[in-house]
Amino acid sequence: MQNLGMMFMMGTQQQKRSVVIDMRSDTVTKPTPELRQAMFEAEVGDDVFGEDPSVNKLQDTVAKMMKKEAALFVPTGTMGNLVSIMAHCQGRGEEVLLGEECHILVWEQAGISQIANVNARAVKTSPDGKLCLKDLEAKIRWRSDPHWPITRLICLENTFSGRVLPLNYLKQVRELADKYNVKIHLDGARLMNAVVALGTTPDAVVQYCDSVSMCFSKGLGCPVGSIVAGDKDFIARALRHRKVLGGGMRQSGILAAAALVALDKSVARLHVDHDNAKKLANGLVDMKSSVFTADPQAVETNMVIIQIQDGTNPMTVCQLLGNAHEGEEAALGQPVHMKIFPFNGSSLRGTFHQDVSTDDVDWILKKLKFVSDLLSGSEREAVINGLTKLSL
Questions:
Q1: Which residues are registered as beta bridge partners of 184?
Q2: DSSP string of 105-156?
Q3: How far apart are the C-alpha atoms of 32 and 261, rounded to whole Å?
Q4: pLDDT on residue 387
């Protein structure tokens, strides 16, 4: 293939006439003009002294929405989960049961172990995010034995890779936890996606949990911020832990104001992201590609897991999707730079959000078809080798 390097050029002129679609996560969203205006006009005070009216209003709003006694604004979802686990596990030698693939265990740097001194015991996670109830019960330390840690907490995640935990399953976990006097914390980073998918209210989803964390900076489109909710004693302990972790943010009403607008406006549009995700999955099935496919039945909210069927390394596929190629403008109408997350050794994760439109789905499918043809064509090895040379 001649002039192979030119296939992968992403120069300034090319970017100006290209479509750029970022599906790596719903954390990449830009604040809407309405959010920016709310931040500009926010009434603020010193939140460490409990005097920021916007933060206080947000905390009261979320507590009432979830029918919990109190809530606490925190900078990040990782901190929200950490202070929650620290608030539940107050003694030494205590243990949390959680999914082997959950965010707390895999993506939060083992903070519950290295900072909170809490033992993490993994439970098998099914593809739909459920923890096997038999496995969960078998791993609860049910008797007082000096050789064992003490099981204090079960952590669930809703949504999990876009999948929604059903209310009847949450009730079953609650019954199991009550049997052994164990608490439940829900990592609800994308809780509102679950609420919309279930067609219910936030309090219905969290009713079986002692505490919950929720992010504003994902599908709700805020620049920063998460919140935890629970009973008053739990929140009082979480407040102390937030302070020692550096989470006191003083005039953080600037951020809380955006979260209040997001709760009022952004939740109502989440169904669009869900519909777009389903459209992409169905489009991949209809494409009948030898390289890419998806399972529309597994698309319940705003995420699509794209399976790579021909063994191509996901990182290689991400590069191919992100770059523009020779002949692409002629084939597609204009080059498409598609940013997507390498999910595991054989798949990609695409996440829809307010900055990816329904029209963008058509561009995404065109790009996937173009790259599929590259990988299934006679010049496959040349294409992949060209990427390798560019990275050296």
A1: 154
A2: HHSSTTHHHHTT--EEEEE-B-TTSPBPHHHHHHHS--S--TTSPEEEEEEE
A3: 10
A4: 72
Tell me which of 15-24, 179-188, 256-265, 361-370 is least confident.
15-24
Residue that the structure tokens 């459209």 belong to: 279
Identify any residues that bridge with 306 across adjacent strands, giving them in sequence order. 348
| Closest-CA residue to 175 (of 202, 209, 138, 124) | 209
| Residue 151 C-alpha from the chain's centroid | 27
CA nearest to 363, candidates 383, 325, 333: 333
Which residues partner with 217 through β-bridges? none
Query: Per 3-state DSSP, what percentage of the chain is helix, strand, and coil (rounded to 5)?
Result: 50, 15, 35
| Cβ(123)–Cβ(132) below 8 Å | yes
Residue 389 has pLDDT above 90, yes or no: no
Tell whether pTM > 0.85.
Answer: yes
Q: Is the pLDDT of residue 381 over 90?
A: no
Give the C-alpha separation, 76 to 215, whole Å. 7
Pick from 352, 105, 355, 109: which is nearest to 223 by CA? 355
Specify burial of residue 375 (Cβ count, 10 A radius: 0-12, 13-18, 19+): buried
- Tell me which H or E stretch contains 34: helix 33-41
Query: How far apart, in whole angstroms, are the C-alpha atoms of residue 369 and residue 110?
Result: 39
Q: Is the dihedral of CA 132, 133, 138, 141 positive or negative?
A: positive
